[in-house]
Predict the structure.
Amino acid sequence: KRLAILASGSGSNAEKIMEHFKNSEKGQIALVASNKAEAFVLERAKKFNVSSFTFSKKELEEGFLLEKLKTEKIDWVILAGFLLKIPAELIRAFPDRMVNIHPALLPKYGGKGMYGAHVHEAVKAAGDSETGITIHLVNENYDEGKIIFQAATPVNPDDSPEDIATKVHALEHRYFPEVIDSLL
Ligand SMILES: N[C@@H]1O[C@H](COP(=O)(O)O)[C@@H](O)[C@H]1O
């Protein structure tokens, strides 16, 4: 299967996924794409000799990305820290073959504007005793697609939002590649 990864930032998850599929028979990371020309994920793609490109929000909405994914014969789309809303047409082109990772235990702390540090600050402010990750299929509502996998980690009262982020990233890096592999 040919996989494309969409990311807007650092790409630590994308790197773990590229590492996992480096010698895989089941899946190949064929493309990395970003809406940010300065995103570090593009540097990580170079390291794995995975071809990459960038696109604007306007191009995304005008179907440029969908055409590219079709041309590249992509089977699965992986959202790994991608912050723009995916157009409905693109979601419909990959029925149950587009997955996202969210840094919290959905349905808590999901929805528009709930991403990255905002999530961990909210967990801290609420005084929750645990948080975690959610891997879900993508549908037309933010963070509301069918949940495929969740894993939790305890939150200690003296954990800072940064400590929480570190724990959550560790879960993401451990499980996201394996869960994608199990879907193929
Ligand atoms: N959606 C969220 O955005 C972050 C991306 O991190 P990275 O993979 O770019 O390091 C991850 O925490 C992911 O759950």
